[in-house]
Amino acid sequence: LNRRLAEFGTTIFAEMSALAARTGAINLGQGFPDTDGPEEIREAAVRALRDGRGNQYPPGPGVPELRSAIADHQRDRYGLDFDPDTEVLVTAGATEAIAAALLALVEPGDEVIALEPYYDSYAACVAMAGGTRVPVTLRPHDGSYVLDLDELRAAVTDRTRLILLNTPHNPTGTVLTRAELTAVAELAVERDLLVVTDEVYEHLVFDDAEHLPIASLPGMRERTVTIGSAGKTFSFTGWKVGWITASPELTSAVRSAKQFLTYVSSGPFQYAIAEALRLPATYFDTLRTELSAKRDLLSEGLAQAGFAVYKPAGTYFVTTDIRPLGAEDGFAFCRSLPERAGVVAIPNAVFYDHREAGAPFVRFAFCKKTEVLEEAVSRLKRLS
Ligand code: PMP
Ligand code: GLN
User: Fold this and answer.
1) ipTM of the prediction
2) Keyword Ribosomal protein on this protein (predicted)?
3) Rounded to the nearest 10 degrees, what angle do helices 330-341 and 12-23 cross at?
């Protein structure tokens, strides 16, 4: 393994799902739903397979049906107009979109600012692109996490190429506010930076939180690559259908990298996701309502079990602080949790460069059946 990748080892998600399988513990680690997405969309995939749509290499940018569904989704939801032919690119999940965007846009030696804690593939992809990651730490404050805009501003140097955003944010559940995003946008315009924004949890926002794509702010459309994924929105994480929307120049750049990574992917599933994006509003509302109830169930259960809980405004993750339970090291805590309580969780430290800043935090996923969450809570209550 080369030096660029050696520091990353095996992803924590594979490690923790293996631990869950080995111990039979309830897996609230890796974020995937335990219920598949809509039956009619599964049927649409079967139909595509049967009718011979997508069984051979689909077009490089993605099938036209899906590209126009993505463009319509961005317009109807956010008022963002993208040309499906030149400004939309289908990828093998958001994972490939992140990799292709960084490989296409970062020169060796460029600095990439990412909000810490950050999703684990960001660091590895910045490294593969030969860039240097510059973390800006979200700080716990009053039960949620906040972005220090002065710190962000101070992190920009002459070498900064782009800011890598993620909102709604994994693992903290933070949804960046209009004020925060406006400040990021102003900084990007002032310092002529690109923004790559991972919005895979765009539909998973609760209460009065609202997801705002930074591409919709002044001066941002032409400097932003927006990433989406069907995995989260439609509960098909195994299908690996993701996408970007961006200016023709940026889309073409990302496609230059993508063509040598996978070339194309997910043929028949692309047709099915094209239908999914056109599901009525009730689908998206129900998803949010159900997840919001699960968020409450798990957040309240974890609090009763003695954790300090950062109640998420978005995503399907809840971050907790284990110090009230007398523990400090999230890694050790998560490694012993299956034996102590029959539950698997993720130590947030893996999402930090400043590991000590993330040490006492542990993430639980709530995209699971209600009875599974109830059982997990009753087991976790044995800890205190
Ligand atoms: N970005 C974030 C923030 C994620 O949490 C995930 C997956 N869980 C991804 C990207 C990857 O998405 P996909 O499965 O579509 O590759
Ligand atoms: N994004 C999911 C999570 O954060 C896992 C995806 C993966 O296993 N790579 O848990």
Assistant:
1) 0.97
2) no
3) 20
